[in-house]
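User: Show me sequence and structure for the first protein, then do the same for the second.

Assistant: Starting with the first protein.
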Amino acid sequence: MKPIVISAILLSALSLGACSHNAKVQAVDINSYWHDDIFESVKDIPTPQEVFSLPQEARDQLLRDFTRAHFGTGNSVSAHEWLAGQLNADKGGFKYYDNYTRIASVTYKERQGNCMSLVVLTAAMADLLNVPVEFQEVLVEPVWDQQGEFYLLNGHVNLRLLPPELKNVAYFRPDAIQVDFLPERAMRGYAKNKLNRQTLLAMFYNNLAAEALVQRQQDRAYALVKQSLQQKANFTPALNTLAILYRYRGHEDWAEDAYRLALRYTPEDLTTLYNLALLLGEQERLEEWAEIHKVLELARIRNPYYYYDMAQQAFSDHEYQQALTWYLRAVEKADYRHEFYFGLSKAYWATGNERKARQSLEKALALSRDGDRQRYQSKLNAMEHH
């Protein structure tokens, strides 16, 4: 099976998690799309209340610290300013960890997670201090990731802490404070969509479902995607995830139903169109496939893994110069993927450019972590002793 695309909100990218919905489309009873009998029940799914809950010890400590800061000095600080300083996310106060969506209590303890984890934690702390928040989807450039047989199309969310609404008080500086791993100046040039809490929860649960699906925990993924759609029944990324689960359980008719429902709400959603095209192609429904493929062909060049896959095939066929061209195009589209630079290093080495092969491998090493780092370091050591 070709790689399937999952939409998720993980770090920086085009967020398909909050696509605009056609208000004229009549709502459908989502309950008719459940097929619980083909999945095992999973009990430990966090409730919406638990997503934003902090341990009592953390709540007590937070209130003590704020009270001390607010009343213990001559310069009283507002709650939203104090909280932003405590989080200090854009200055390393929290460690970014992609593909890691967690509830507030876990993120509070571990001090790491993705942008969704940071947003949920911040909102939980803000709720305790009665600080109003504003959730935002940031429309930045697409960031792609490949996890096993899945492509992850990542999106980005953050939030703003709003000042307390006090009567007869005029603010002579920017009122809201943005909380993000990225500096606010880096976000100024991008459009943003405001999100309500239900939509954010739909994104949150679909993130967890996508992560579970990548880890082959299909029963858990199903329970999580149900939670996502119970928050927002017309949430296209979750309908896409639901369809993927039905395909893996061998029910392509149910999968197609979910894809078609998603397209009723967002007819031009490329993720859903791509996955539906895979299904139609495997069923040899070529006329329907061709209609969708016309749209996809125009969008395919946005996906850096298209060029990477072409490069991998050319390298496998010993067409090293052609592979080099494709790897360079992949890097041009996504210069944050370590595997692209590793492929580039192999192609440079095969074409006799040892200097650029080393440079590319050093770049792959710098972008990688864990097991890949060890592998790249070993190959770099072998190069240096060549």
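Switching to the second protein now.
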Amino acid sequence: MEACRIVVLVSGNGSNLQAIIDHLEKGKTEGEIVAVFANRPSAYGLTRASDAGIPAHCIDHKAYASREEYDAALMQHIDSYSPDLIVLAGFMRILTEPFVQHYHGRMLNIHPSLLPKYKGLDTHQRALDAGELEHGASVHFVTAELDGGPVIIQSKVPIYEDDDASTLQQRVQYQERDIYPLVVQWFCNGRLRLNDNVVFLDGKALPAQGYAAD
């Protein structure tokens, strides 16, 4: 079986990128990161990629007049690596519909909330302000609706009385680094697919909240 060719997009620190790199090194995934792209020159994820021997590129969004022009250029660079899977790992850009459609069924994102709750930004503070008792992260297929694609898996964490946005974020990120590499493994090993906007794992349709262990 040929290795699944993965391209990762980052905007910042790249902690989830690092988690996926570390997971791939364990050899349980039929996949390989063939390139990492960032939209910001300062993104530390580029350094993580270079340190791992992965081609790292900055396609600076400030160099383009419009979102459409940027996405078209980014798509061209990505496609030069003939990817099977696109992984958004803290890529802080709203993607245009042509870009999303081009990679439909093969682009993943991780979002720091229990979707469909708290789409968008500042999810940790919003969960605290709402008096939630639990929070978490969701991995989903990307569609044209912002943070609205079908959920593959969620991981929940408790919210404690003395939590602030920072402590809650740390707890959620710890879970992210477990579930995102797992979903990448499922996809690369041929277990995960999107059909008619329904997520299938091992040929079985998953519920709206995604995979849940017994």
